Amino acid sequence: MGKVIIIGGGASGLMAAGKAAQRGNEVHIFEKNDRLGKKIYITGKGRCNITNDSDVENFIANIPGNPYFLYSALYGFTSEDTISFFNSLGLKTKVERGNRVFPVTDKAADVVAAFEKYMKEMKVNIHLNSPVDSIIIKDKNAVGIKTNGKEILSDAVIVATGGLSYPGTGSTGDGYRFAKKCGHTVTDLYPSLVPLKTEEKWCADLMGLSLKNVAITLKDEKGKKIYTDFGEMLFTHFGVSGPMILSASCHITGLPGGRKVKLYIDLKPALDEKVLDNRIIRDFEKFINKNFANSLDELLPKKLIPVIIKLSGIDEFKKVHDITKEERKRLVSLIKALPLTITGATGFNDAVVTRGGINVDEINPSTMESKIIKNLYFIGEVLDCDGYTGGFNLQIAFSTGFAAGSNVCNYDLEDRK
User: In this structure, which CATH number among 3.50.50.60, 3.20.20.60, 3.40.50.720, 3.40.50.11810 belongs to the domain 3-190+354-416?
Assistant: First the structure.
């Protein structure tokens, strides 16, 4: 066993620290903030979606960023293990829509408190307000860190600094700087799981409107399908947001400038075009003497109706009985595929995670140890791995943290000489 330094006291760092200490190592966490788990406090809108209650294959399907690199880590510490881990610390959990797992209390602070209890039980040494300046490398071995002008030696260093998302929590790219100085490649970095901006200005008129049980489809400029999803979204003053949109953004960020992607919203995914047309015919028969503008109240959210009317090209004052079959067909197509032009995404201040990071080809997928520098490990968001919204990214943090903590200083006395 040996002395392990962990840079960063977030989700992955805390998991690695506890596991490494549990195996008998002397563990020190160096955290630049004045408290542990600062980003955990704001995840899941303060409720903390700790994982997704799914098997590994489903996890892999929900990780667009280098999923296969994570096979060993996810099998080594599954979502079931995450739930059991927190339950063992006295944190009860519940499963909600989309297999999202939350604390029963709906308080992210309770997740941090569970980790703090774990750190205390494992006798992990916590150093707050302790930003790390650099990692000490000798003969291609990580042998310590420099912090506050001092050198602190160790047998291994684990980098758990996070990415660039929510920089107010301390995620300012330190890990990428450390990695580059150690000879690692860092891929291009983009904000991911972010709201999307649209060319259409009518989104601002719908600001705050939430749509549930709708479907979306993303297509590139050639009309090729990029992504589909079903669930919830909302309109903002600049475009669209909500769980589905955040996941869709994984396929938007990083596109070359000038490229535009089309987003189509199916407002009635449970109905095919023929069934929807019959439904509209029944509504029109019911409101046969009314103006078109007053015939859609039972079909669509009130706030959305003026937008649909305008886009349909049908005169809002036209009597329902005068609407032609062709006009009705146009209305059906619009409801089944309400089009938006995506012009880009918001930035790192709004991003849940970072897309890109340390090249995973340079990392051992079973241990998270660098293939370039011995006894140097990288875990969590600093790696070029990212998932959709729904608990997948925190599970990546826990699984990679567990892998590093389980393998750090895993050598015999002869190896250490």
Answer: 3.50.50.60
